User: Fold this.
Amino acid sequence: MTAADEHDTDRVITAIADPSRRRILDTLRRDDGASIGELTLALAPLGRHAVLKHVTHLERAGLVTTRKTGRERRCHLNAVPIVALAERWIDDFGARTASGLMALRDELESNPEEGEHHDR
Assistant:
């Protein structure tokens, strides 16, 4: 993994660490293309300025893209960085854990008498 990849990962983790930003992502997952005004309503009591600040942070992390349509700014979810993070940390960890458990099962099944306990 390159230093740039590490920096991108840090940005994503920092972005999703904040509960308000996670709420924005959840809102966009349900209503992709929501306007800043719609996000502000969904995140009340946060004001428009705070929502804009959070959206900017999510944009820098690559999790949100915005498109200006007239006077409205529409936000769109980009789940690719989260999926990449999940593949790197969760899926890999799960695969290693599963393979370790399967190896343990195979070892125990190949030597059944070693795994038996007798009452004395």
Summary: The mean pLDDT is 85. The radius of gyration is 23 Å. DSSP finds six helices and two strands in the chain. Residues 1 and 30 are 33 Å apart (CA to CA).
